[in-house]
Amino acid sequence: RRRLTMAESSWPGSSPPCSAWLSSTSSAAPRAPHAKMSSSRLFSSTSPAPTFTVRTTRSTSTSSCDYSEGQWVRAAGHARRYNGTECNVKGSEDCVRNGRPDTSYLDWRWQPAAPGCQLPGFDAGAFLGAVRGEHVAFVGDSMARNQAESLVCLLGASFPYHLVYSDPEPGTRKFWRWAFPTHNVTVSVYWAPFLARATGRCENYSLPYNSVHLDALAERWSGDAGTMDVAVVSTGHWFWNPSVYYNGSEVLGTHLLPELNHTGIGFLSPYREAIRASIRRLASAGRARAVVVATFSPAHFEKAWDDPATCARRLPYTEGEREVDATHAQLRSIVREETAAAAATDGGATRVEVLDVTKLATMRPDGHPSVYMKRDPFARGVPERLQSDCLHFCLPGPVDTFNEILLQLLLTKRE
């Protein structure tokens, strides 16, 4: 195999590299051996074929509502459920503490489009009751972490909890774990931006691209898969970055790296393979569980990533004002298709749920930290250039709605 050369590649369009504020894989905690896949067929499995039941974002507990389509409607105080500082959210997403002057982004709720459907507000007691004695794990990129921290705060506003493990390296949130003793529930987050094993830029932002091994899942989360009772898989943003994709030592192709003289394969096919492999790994881990695969939650960079006004909107989009981007729709479809394909037989031990958040996230350009990812960003005037976070959501904020839907999926699972 020809030795690959290092080459710089720029982020397409006006958006910044997602990795500007995403964490890397940790080496602090003990790791289990990574899950190596058969080289004869990408993501093939030697374990018995798992069985699946697939659901989308619907719940019989609320008249089989479909939450994937709808609109944001005003609801004073709906998202004012916790203090982000008190529950130790990532500092760059603690928008109130950081001085964001407007808080109207907390006064909206998601109204499903189907007639007669309502999405109930989050009920911490119902959630903990649904997962009593279980391990709830979030696996993926920093949007998985964003949702995990939202869940911990929503639960912690009503029930005691404590941090069991956090990365020893200051400022990183690669692998964290919390415990809720009243219900013997554990919540964990696993940093795995490609789900598969990856090195390069995702570990060291000074490097020009990622090397992603699609024949092996990331070590930590795949090694712990057997302990997970509810696994929420959420990824997508890192796939947009320049990458070389491998099957073993063979280069399958590249994304945004024409200078390496390998076939450009984009990122949709690697994304599909990673989702497929992750579902199979979780389904073959030897016990009944719920696997919840979230669809893509898009960013809202409207100008250059370091323009202070790149995501300065203060209201959600209204119906018809903003459509789901074509590529985002493709990523959404891949999740739907792969979860549906996993339904080999009905009534299986593993139930695969689709947490479809693409539309509701698309409609919330106002919910990001923007320049308030840093504390008091205008304390010394208005700089010409200022980094903004238009990817993650403020905590509290719109991502809490992801967990409202997750609760309904889990209640359906228990029924």
Automatic annotation (TrEMBL):
Record GO terms (molecular function): xylan O-acetyltransferase activity
Main localization category: Golgi
Composition bias type Low complexity, residue spans: 55-64
Region: Disordered, residue numbers: 1-65
Similarity annotation: Belongs to the PC-esterase family. TBL subfamily.
Signal peptide from the UniProt entry: none
Chain intervals with Polar residues compositional bias: 7-28, 37-54
InterPro entries recorded: TBL, TBL_C, TBL_N
Coiled coil spans: none
Entry annotated with the keyword Transmembrane: yes
Domain Trichome birefringence-like C-terminal per the UniProt entry, residue ranges: 119-408
Name the UniProt record assigns to this protein: Uncharacterized protein
Residues in Trichome birefringence-like N-terminal domain copies: 64-113
Domain of life: Eukaryota
Membrane topology type: Single-pass type II membrane protein
Keywords from the named record: Disulfide bond, Glycoprotein, Golgi apparatus, Membrane, Signal-anchor, Transferase, Transmembrane, Transmembrane helix
GO cellular component terms attached to this protein's record: Golgi membrane
Localisation: Golgi apparatus membrane
Keyword Protein transport applies: no
